[in-house]
UniProtKB/TrEMBL annotation:
Record-given protein name: ABC transporter substrate-binding protein
Originating species: Paenibacillus mucilaginosus 3016
Pfam families: TctC (PF03401)
Annotated coiled-coil segments of the chain: none
InterPro entries: BUG, Bug_dom1
Similarity remark: Belongs to the UPF0065 (bug) family.
Amino acid sequence: MSLTVVLGMTVLTGCGGATAKTSGARAGKSADFPNKPISLIVPFAAGGGTDTTARALAKAAEKVFKQPVTVVNKTGGGGSVGMTEGSNAKSDGYTVTVVTVELTTLPHLGLSPITYQNFKPVGMMNYEPAAITVRADSPWQTMKDFLDYAKANPGKVRLGNSGTGAIWHLAAAALEKETGTKFNHIPFEGAAPAITALLGGHVDAVPVSPPEVKSQVESGKLRSLAVLDDKPAEVLPGVKTLKEETGIAFDYIGTWRGLGVPKDTPDEIVQALSEGFLKGMEDEEFKAFMKKNGLTIVSKDSSSFGQYVKENDERFGKLIPELGLSKK
């Protein structure tokens, strides 16, 4: 498990970021915050990766806030239902929402009524890149083999993804665009069924996260060819990055999780939440949970996370229409 921490509270323009500057009166207003339980909305089902990560962080944050942090699952719409409810909550800091990369993709797909601008960012907690993975008996031994074949045989490589317009479809589309290849994208209802299809020989490869293929790679059933990131994934030892394998590097697409509050939440409350949850991410039990599950802690404070989300939104605002997926 790797831990990346980006700190430094600054003023954001157009990102809804918190500022460190408050008057004495306003600072006093948050001096006793929080003084009652905090609700943490998770926009996905109980038991999934986002839910279990949120529950582990909630447990760690309780030690910091000295108040219960209660997870509430609000599912539907690929995360849109829960994030919409969170954005419309009371702006007092007592309802925090787990926001995911879908906050910056669903609006451009015409599938969500809200955008990142409906939130003030609290902080980022996790990031996972894509890894191109094939069956152990695949004829492609390297990423170069895979891309060379794809270039020579446009549309023949069947690439299973987690759904049309979902993050792993977009990650594969970005790879396609940057390498001059053309894949046959096969959508499934999530990464797990795409991996099952790969194991059964129904697709040739999947572009999902390292933790999602970790157990199958370790058992010798699958083989990852490259990680689409600037650095290798700890859970896939020996697997190089795309740049190390091919010399190709670009602005990779991956999945992330963070926290947000309604856009009108006072800045000093946002700062208190950001500092508290960041401290929670340093908790040994939380770090042990993330390592056990092969997840990477990438920690950004309110300002840094706000800028990161804005850049993601701008990128998907260009890529999704290019793919003909925009329904606006």
